[in-house]
Design brief:
The structure holds 2 protein chains of 2 kinds. Chain A is of the alpha/beta class. Chain A has helices at residues 35-42, 70-84, 110-114; strands at 16-17, 23-27, 44-46, 52-56, 92-96, 118-121. In chain A, the strands form 2 sheets. In chain A, strands 2-4-5-6 form a 4-stranded parallel beta sheet, with no helix packed on it. Chain A has a two-stranded parallel sheet with strand order 1-3. In chain A, strand 4, helix 2 and strand 5 form a beta-alpha-beta unit. Chain B has 10 helices and 10 strands. In chain B, strands 1-2-3-4-6-8-9-10 form an 8-stranded parallel beta sheet. In chain B, helix 9 packs parallel to helix 10. Classes of the chains: A alpha/beta, B alpha/beta. Strand 2 (23-27) of chain A pairs parallel with strand 10 of chain B.
């Protein structure tokens, strides 16, 4: 895995505690979660106050989530964060710029949902 | 017209579009001050000639209409024939709270000019977009603003020349409200320099590829409440 300028390698896994973090926004532009992003998120050991994570993608319709690959990595990370969350109502994921009328894929972030996480969309035209 | 209470006149002026403020300032003496305050609250300097003219037409007067300016933007001034004009214009803006610099060169002298007076203490918001200057100058400008709360840096063109001035650890301050750091090549150095200077933030909005960004997240780990990652 090639990290630019040694960037992601500098953060050891599971060492970053973010006690005040309540909201995380991730703009995916037009791609799947990158190795860099997964590495950064994996570095977070705890974020107990986190209650919402927003993924923004300009073309959700071209995303092909699967049970392997970056979305599966994301799913595992979300499960870990959801299990740690101490906020009332639990952790929710918002899919921003979601196409109106398009259902969320059934298996998308499956384990996160099974762990009690909620997925919301802000459907637009 | 003169019998109207000032509060009512002010409310009317506050509801007017900006394009009407010149006319409203001429209605009567009671209308002048509020109209000018609104008209001059934000000003934009699109050329060095305009900055020069402003300095000539509105000499420093803490009680005068120059004090109505709260937001100043310098835009499209790639380089300066007279590198002192930027600082002189700022020096007169005694009520400035927000400084925007877009597609404009920042002279190396500017941080010193800001630090000399009281100006830097009032500025709480600094927005730098497509600015060109050295990393040392960028950092010195930031350090010259002791009450900064919001810092936005987008696609700076940072020259490598010039050593970074060291700023003592005692100059570290309370967490800033937010940092927005976006760009391609040059934001990494700024992120790293901010982290090494001990800046921390409550909200971070970052392009994550450049080096130095990870240090900002780590150093702000106790304070950051909102984290936005772009371009990942």
């Amino acid at each position: 895995m090639d990290f630019p300028d040694g960037f992601a390698r500098k953060i050891p896994h599971h060492t970053l505690s973010l006690p005040a973090l309540t909201a995380l926004d991730i703009n995916l532009q037009a791609g799947d979660p990158s190795p860099n992003l997964i590495t950064i998120l994996s570095s977070i050991s705890s974020a107990p106050a986190l209650d919402s994570i927003t993924f923004e993608h300009i073309m959700w319709s071209i995303v092909h989530p699967s049970f392997q690959g970056p979305w599966a990595d994301m799913d595992r990370w979300l499960v870990r964060v959801a299990q740690q969350a101490r906020v009332q109502g639990g952790l929710s994921v918002m899919l921003r710029l979601w196409p109106k009328g398009m259902p969320v894929w059934e298996g998308f972030l499956r384990d996160f949902r099974r762990a009690g996480g909620q997925i919301k969309t802000d459907a637009h035209n | 017209m003169n019998s109207l209470p000032q509060e009512l006149i002010d409310a009317v002026i506050d509801s007017l579009p900006r394009s009407s403020l010149l006319s409203s300032s001429l209605v009567a003496k009671q209308w002048q001050r509020r109209s000018q305050q609104r008209a001059l609250k934000k000003i934009r300097f699109p050329s060095e000639a305009q900055v020069d003219r402003w300095c000539t037409d509105f000499p420093q007067d803490p009680e005068g209409i120059v004090s109505y300016v709260h937001v100043a933007e310098f835009a499209g001034i790639d380089s300066w024939y007279d590198s002192t004009i930027f600082g002189r214009a700022l020096k007169g803006l005694s009520s400035l709270t927000e400084l925007r610099v877009s597609v404009t060169g920042i002279p190396d002298e500017l941080p010193t000019q800001i630090s000399r007076g009281e100006l830097g203490k009032g500025i709480t918001i600094l927005r730098l977009q497509y600015t060109s200057c050295t990393l040392a100058t960028t950092m010195s400008v930031i350090h010259s603003l002791p009450n900064l709360k919001v810092l936005s840096i987008v696609d700076p063109r940072v020259g490598s020349e010039g050593p970074l001035r060291s700023h003592p650890v005692t100059s570290r301050r309370a967490p800033l409200d937010s940092l927005e750091l976006w760009g391609d090549v040059d934001v990494g150095g700024i992120g790293k320099a901010l982290a090494e200077s001990g800046f921390t933030f409550r909200r971070l909005s970052l392009e994550v590829d450049p080096s130095g960004v990870e240090q900002l997240v780590m150093l702000s780990s106790e304070t950051v409440a909102k984290l936005a990652l772009y371009g990942v």
